[in-house]
Amino acid sequence: MRYIRYAFLACLGIALVSIALANRGDVSLALLPETLADLTGLSYRIELPLFVVIFGGIIAGLLIGFVWEWMREYKHRAEASRKSREVHDLERQLKREKRRADSAENKDEVLALLDEAS
Predict the structure, then answer these.
(1) Cβ pair 46, 29 in contact under 8 A
(2) Backbone φ, ψ for residue 31 (5° rounding)
(3) Which of 8, 23, 110, 111 has CB 3.0 to 4.6 Å from 50, enough for a Cys bridge?
(4) How far apart are the C-alpha atoms of 116 and 100, rounded to whole Å?
(5) Which residues are CB-contacts of 24 (< 8 A; sequence separation ≥ 6)?
(6) DSSP H or E run through 11
(7) Model-level pTM?
(8) What value does the mean pLDDT take over residues 96-106?
(9) Mean pLDDT throughout 77-99?
(10) What confidence category does residue 110 fall into, taking pLDDT thresholds of 50, 70 and 90?
(11) E runs forming strands in the chain
């Protein structure tokens, strides 16, 4: 299984390197379109190789997806945490009742009734 994983990672690495070599040309990224940039005065531009833009888009998409999924599953994690606390409390109550039952068996019936009354 380990060799299959290494083979997959090697193929993925070769594919990513070939994409990067094929897309080395510089592209200009602008913050806003020219007409809007002239209006606002924000004419920020940067020159980057195309493969950086492609890989950056992929990474940004993955991060946004992970954060979106984490936020979407919050209610499930909260419910599981609540159920875990409830189970813990019930187990503690069960242990307490078992101890009480064990101590009641060892006592005289009259003393057990007096303990329950108080």
Answers:
(1) yes
(2) -70, -45
(3) 23
(4) 10
(5) 49, 50, 51
(6) helix 2-22
(7) 0.62
(8) 75
(9) 93
(10) low
(11) 26-30, 45-49
Which residue type is seen at 68?
W
All structural domains of the chain with their residue ranges: 2-72, 81-117
* Residue 85 in this model has a pLDDT that exceeds 90: yes
Helix (H) or strand (E) holding 30: strand 26-30
| Residues 101/112, Cβ–Cβ less than 8 Å | no
Q: In the chain, how many H helices and how many E strands?
A: 5, 2
Res 109: pLDDT: 67
Query: Is 90 exceeded by the pLDDT of residue 43?
Result: no
CB 26 within 8 A of CB 48: yes
How far apart are alpha carbons 63 and 66 in whole angstroms? 5
